Amino acid sequence: MSELVLRDAPPPVATIGRPETYLNDGQTIRSWLFTTDHKRIGVLYLISITFFFIIGAIAAGLIRLALVVPDGSILTNDIYNKLFTLHGVIMVWFFLVPSIPNVLGNFLLPIMIGAKDVAFPRLNLLSWYIFMGAAVFELFVLIAGGVDTGWTFYTPLSTIYSNSWVIPAVLGVIVVGFSSILTGVNFITTVHTMRAPGMTWFRMPLFVWSMYATSLILVLATPVLTMAMVLLFYERAFGIGVFDPGAGGDPVMFQHLFWFYSHPVVYVMVLPGMGVMSELVTAFAYKRVFGYTFIAYSSMAIAAIGFFVWGHHMFFNGISEYSGMSFSLLSFAVAVPSAIKVYNWAATIHKGEIRLATPMLYAMGWIALFVVGGITGLFLASLGIDAHVHDTYFVVAHFHYIMVGATVLAFLGGIHYWWPKITGKMYPEFWGRVSALFMFVGFNMTFAPQFVLGYLGMPRRYHTYPPQFQFLNILSSAGATVLAAAYLFPLAYLLWSIRYGRDAPPNPWDARGLEWTIPSPPPPHNFEEVPVVDFEPYDYPNRIPEA
Amino acid sequence: MPDGVGIELAEQFSSARQQKETGELGMWVFLLTELMLFSTLFVSALILRMLHPGAVTAAALHLKMWIGGLNTAVLITSSFFMSLAIELSRAGRTSPMRLCMVVTAGLGVLFLCLKGYEYYRDYAEHMTPFFAWRPYGLLGDPASRLFVDLYYVITSLHAVHLTIGIGLVMTMQHLARAPGFLSRHANRIAITGLYWHFIDLIWIIVYPTLYVLNR
């Protein structure tokens, strides 16, 4: 990326006949840092979240390294606690939440609905600056001082007992929330008012539907986290004990407020991935998506039901039997729209003209991992089974199948799919397939043993464990190294392709959708003139393949 | 729209109507997040009341209900003048519109003054549990301290929002001095008004939740 930014402006003669793209429309650093072009802001986000992903991944690597031995002799308890907090905080707020929405969403949403830009371009840039400010501050706090509460900041550990840098860490989380809110406001407004003529709601690509549902969650849930964190800050700093039973408060209320945000935000992480999936599956099955309206509405249903399931994180924290049963039932209900999507993608692939290119490999890996992650979610939503496996590695494995298996695979699949559009260059297909394969194998090797460990009773967040668990832990750590290789491959060959890759045609996949009708990379204002949409979404020919 | 009222098109829009709708919708969505922000505090206060009804009532009886009531009237009046300003902006009448906005902001300042006086009275009655060095006046159940603390948290957050609102209204009426402002940015007055009405609405929820309900 930086090569593009730093390269000297070419002499005037050389630009004659060269198409004007968003990349060569001003090449100074200033033209990037003060840009209001949604595509450039998407690229800025891509660079930033990649950096924070690497930091979070290094922390995860160190955690897995420490767990190779059962006696905890590699890292001290304190360092271990600070590492898993750093991993959680960085990965959740500085990678997963902004990953697909702020990179692919920013880049694609306006193009997909035929707009010149998002509704509020300057707000969009402000959102990036808030993100960067909070992220750099948070990183400093987590590395210089460290926090040992875990990413959930549960009271009373975070308010009374912890001696680490909780207050600044909480402030960083509050500030990054504003970045999410601004993005959410921007996307909702963009989808409502910026659609091109003829782009009706049910002609929007399913990725746009999923971004819309995601933005609703961001806008409605994030302020609740903000306020929960403000109250936590007041309690720790000034002794205003809303969560302190000694002062008349209630520590369980913190968990209610925290999960009222943090469970919906799980869908912020997975819904965009589902949106990417709908695009990948249709393009590489070369077929109309099966059940368009069902997929669109199921995104909205997931967003809506997602607000009423937070209690399943608290089955054993003293909530009543009846609320336990209600939350259990509602958590089962979320599985319905999720399953609708998976069945619809399977039906889309069925009898399609399947091309097993890199994005499709990621998509198929996605379906497998999401199904495992989703079904183990049902185990956890059942009161009886949860009594056995809650707070064990079973939970860790479950949510990594969703967050890493689903979100990261969708993110990488999407990055590969739209890489030609973003950079105007093709990546080496062979290495793409190799890395997709490594990803799938490495991921399962890392996290599948953790289901077993959890079922056998290994608790989360502990640094030491009984020696009989060592084999599975070593297997998991070995898987993590494969996974690390699978992350490093794309980093290397995608950067390589920026300079040496061959030029991408406007539509390298022969895919449908407005983003494939414009040149790669797109011109600064996306469309020469406002497009008029007179076609249905995913209007693939639906040929029946020869038997 | 009458002469001299209009919108200068920003480059991402294709019509003035689209730009106007976008600006207003954006503010509405933002206000939705603000509502959720305050709701968290309202829920906290209501739950505290359910857990400790006696202590909360005892503490709430010391809130100055008449100041709160007067302030409610002040804010509703200010919203009336803001609405008037929006109507005048649509008619393109800059001078009376600016006057209405100054009155709006002035009523906002009056609210803050009354609120400040109320805080002063609270302080004089030793109702400041968060000051460790000053003895707290209402002894007994610790939940009464928590309720009073929450009262400060909620009202001060509202006051911060109101201060931003006053700054916004004054900035807008100042910018509107420029000739032809309404022909370029007529929609900004209505969007500012939305924010102002919202702060008013929040107070209309704060007042019963803290002052009235607990008597």
Supply the CATH architecture of chain A. Up-down Bundle
Q: Which range does the strand content of chain B fall in?
A: under 5%
The CATH topology annotation of chain B reads as Four Helix Bundle (Hemerythrin (Met), subunit A)
Provide the low-confidence segments of chain B as ranges.
none
Cα separation of the termini of chain B: 50 Å
Number of helices of chain A: 17
**Helicity of chain A, in percent?**
55-70%
Provide the CATH superfamily of chain A. Cytochrome c oxidase-like, subunit I domain
CATH topology of chain A: Cytochrome C Oxidase, Chain A
Rg from Cα of chain A = 23 Å
Structural class label of chain B: mainly alpha
The largest inter-chain interface, given as chain pair and residues per side, is: A-B, 41 and 37 residues
Order of helices and strands of chain A: HHHHHHHHHHHHHHHHH
Structural account:
The complex is a heterodimer of chains A (547) and B (215). Chain A is globular and about 70 Å long. Chain A is mainly α and 547 residues long. Chain A is built from 17 helices and no strands. Chain B has a single domain (16-212), classed as Cytochrome c oxidase, subunit III, four-helix bundle (Four Helix Bundle (Hemerythrin (Met), subunit A)). Chain B is built from 6 helices and no strands. Chain B has helices spanning 16-51, 53-60, 65-91, 94-124, 142-175, 181-212. In chain B, helix 1 packs antiparallel against helix 5 (142-175). The longest helix of chain B is centred in the first third of the chain and has 36 residues, at 16-51. Chain B is elongated. The N and C termini of chain B lie far apart (50 Å). In chain B, 40% of the residues are buried. The interface between A and B is large, with 41 and 37 residues.
